[in-house]
Amino acid sequence: MKMGLLEESSRFYEWTKETKDPRTRNWFLLNDNPIYVILIVLAYYFIVWQGPKFMKNRKPYELQTFMIIYNWFLVILSAYMTFEIVYSSYLIGYFSTSNPLCAKYKHSEAYKDPKEMRLANVLYIYFLSKILEFMDTFLMIMRKKDNQITYLHVYHHSSILIVWWIVMTYMPGGQSWMSSSMNCLVHVVMYAYYALAAIPSMRSKLWWKKYITKFQLTQFTLILLHTLQSAFTRCDFPKIGEYMLTLYMISMLVLFGNFYIKSYNLRQMEKAKKDGVKLSNGKSNGHSKGHTNGYAKLD
Fold this sequence. Notes:
There is one protein chain. By secondary structure, the protein is an all-alpha fold. It has one domain (about 25-275). Helix content is about 75%, strand content about 0%. It contains nine helices and no strands. The chain has helices at about 1-20, 35-55, 65-90, 115-130, 135-140, 150-170, 175-195, 210-230, 240-299. The protein is globular.
């Protein structure tokens, strides 16, 4: 029994090595196994766990200048990646086929194509940027904004790194262009908001915060639909990638949808109830005061 399990594990490990994409096989963090990425995620969890405890009896850091620079850097980086991913996909010919929604994945010969390598390179930058984005959480910890470190926030930041390790190791091309470019486009808007929100005089003018969440929900919906049509039209892309992305997008829609409902819809309902109470009180008070004042004048 134990020998059989060991043999199966060994075969599975050999299979994972054989199916790795030759373009990224020897790249930093992508060579051999996911242990380094797992250790990075575990270190992230440790900081999320211990960080607030470390800051408990300390004053929060301001970090305004750093936040402005950091967020604008991510705006520029996200804009660059959006353009480079879409343009590289265009050069490869993803949009000029009979089915522009199906970007066929090339495995064995892709490393010989400079256009395919160009896309793989920018997707690798995208993968590494997910480690950089851990800084979002660290800034919350240092500023003692613990209420912002939600399950959704931690899950999204940690899981996307693991998802993209799998993508970059086994399928750094083809249909992968869609989810990455959409996410980069959303991040242009999101980090621009964060950069402006770091300036106190700008905060009252930022009326479009809730639309960022709507934009994110739209992103997840489009990626999910794009992935599902890929499966139904038998697009030449690894099935494991389609299954993984489908499940991941569903989890994102559920979590972000729940966040949106709690943050905006319920808040509006509570506000409407309060306004209704104030309105009814205003009417009753208005009538009584009107009569009293009227009689007073007559007297």
